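Case study B.
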Amino acid sequence: MFKVIINVDPKKSILDPQGKTVLRALNNLGFSSAEEVRIGKHIVVMLDVESENQAIESARSMCTALLFNPLTEEFTIDVEPC
Amino acid sequence: MLTIGVVVFPGSNCDLDALRAVNEVMSCNAVPLWHMDTNIQADAIVLPGGFSYGDYLRPGAIATHSSIMKTVKTFAENGGPVIGICNGFQILTESGLLPGTLLTNNSTRFISKDISLNIVTNRTPFTKLFKPNQQITMPIAHKDGNYQADASTLASLKNNDQIVFTYNNNPNGSVENIAGICNKEGNVLGMMPHPERAISKWTRSTDGTIVFKSLLQFLEAK
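Model:
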């Protein structure tokens, strides 16, 4: 069993209105050193596979099939045995 | 009698409005099509507005993989008229039937109001009865209507006369003020404004009727 952690984030080239709004709120709260906020999604999938490689392969297929939009997002995959 | 199918996903909420518009304006047989169906007996298909699957992951992302969308794709690829309104537009971009994508409005707010639109092209089955450059009014009601596409996609949209509606006062940050586009062939139209909510006096504008009357004329001429 492996725990796969997929982070899907808006591409750098894409304006992230949610991140921008949160940045403004942080600045208003006095966090003046905050310069940029990007907000993405954190997806955890428990996978019943034999190896770490299989887990990564499977997670990548899931991203391509559904979990991310290649036009506007990018993703990273982390795997933990469990 | 002509039959117009309105696809109902879990979370669709403009399906009854769309069915009513088809009934009242086109006097056609309006049938709801459940998302699990795989067989479509219809002359045109409406993907209605709403929040299919709660907009989980991305608006339209999960609806794209429902059983009926395979059939809708085949129907569209064979030249069948398909209109996606609001969430329906998001489903069309997610499924690759239309290029580009719809992001969160620049203001991050849900915007619900009547809006002035410009007709760029009338070459689709749904816009035949409009005149190019005609100014019309329809309501919008969305949070994710900010149309974006890369430079080469935009160039091809322009070169192939695929921009159908533009906003006169851009409400959401859409590139080139785009409110609606069609595919190259013109038979698939996606639009954020709601024609089905602009069909009678009590909806303030009746400009939406022209969308349904255009479709009727197109289907009758076939």
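The interface with chain A takes residues 57-58, 61-62, 65, 94, 100-101, 103-108, 146, 148-150, 173 of chain B (CB under 8 Å). The remaining cases will be described in the next quarterly update.
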